[in-house]
Specification:
Number of strands: 3
Order of helices and strands: HEEEHHH
Shape: globular
Strand order of the largest sheet: 1-2-3
Oligomer: single chain
Bound molecules: zinc ion
Radius of gyration: 14 Å
C-alpha cells in the first residue's frame, strides 16, 4: 500500500472528495444529528442521519461544516459509503475506520468495507490529522446515539 502510484491516486480521491462535499446541506426538519468540533485544526461539522421511516436503512447523511480538506473529504467519503447501508452496519464501519486511523500507516487487514474512504489511510501516519479524518465519523456516532434515544 505504499507504491507512489497508489499514494497519488489516494491524494486525488481525497482532493476530489474535499471539493465535491457529497451530502453538504442540512435538512430543515428535526433529525438525529450531532455537532463536532476539532479545536486543534478548527474543523467543525454538523451531521444529520436520514433513514427510511422504519429507521433500518440509511437514506443519506446531510452535513454542513468547515475545515481542512481532510475533514471535508472524509465527510464526503463517509456520505458516499453509508448511502443505502443498513443502520445496524454503521457501528462496525466506524470501528473499522477508527482502527485504520489508529494504524499509524500500517493499514487494516481488510479495508474493503470502507470503500473509497480507505484512501484516507495515509492520514494515519500523522497523529495530528487523525482527528480531522475522524470528525465526521464521530458525528455519525453521535447521531446514531440520538437516533436510538
Ligand atoms: Zn483538519
Amino acid at each position: 500500500m505504499s507504491s507512489p502510484e497508489l499514494a497519488s491516486l489516494y491524494q486525488q480521491v481525497i482532493l476530489e472528495a474535499s471539493k465535491q462535499k457529497h451530502g453538504f446541506g442540512l435538512h430543515p426538519e428535526e433529525l438525529p444529528s450531532s455537532h463536532q468540533l476539532n479545536p486543534t485544526c478548527g474543523d467543525e461539522i454538523t451531521l444529520q442521519l436520514v433513514t427510511d421511516p422504519a429507521g433500518g436503512t440509511v437514506q443519506k447523511l446531510a452535513w454542513e461544516g468547515a475545515g481542512c480538506s481532510i475533514s471535508m473529504a472524509s465527510a464526503s467519503l463517509l456520505t458516499d459509503l453509508t448511502a443505502g447501508l443498513p443502520v445496524a452496519e454503521l457501528p462496525g464501519r466506524i470501528a473499522l475506520f477508527r482502527e485504520l486511523m489508529q494504524s499509524k500507516g500500517a493499514g487494516v487487514e481488510d479495508d474493503e468495507p470502507l470503500g473509497d474512504a480507505a484512501a484516507l489511510e495515509g492520514v494515519s501516519r500523522y497523529i495530528a490529522r487523525v482527528k480531522c479524518a475522524m470528525l465526521a465519523w464521530v458525528a455519525l456516532e453521535g447521531a446514531l446515539l440520538e437516533a436510538k434515544a
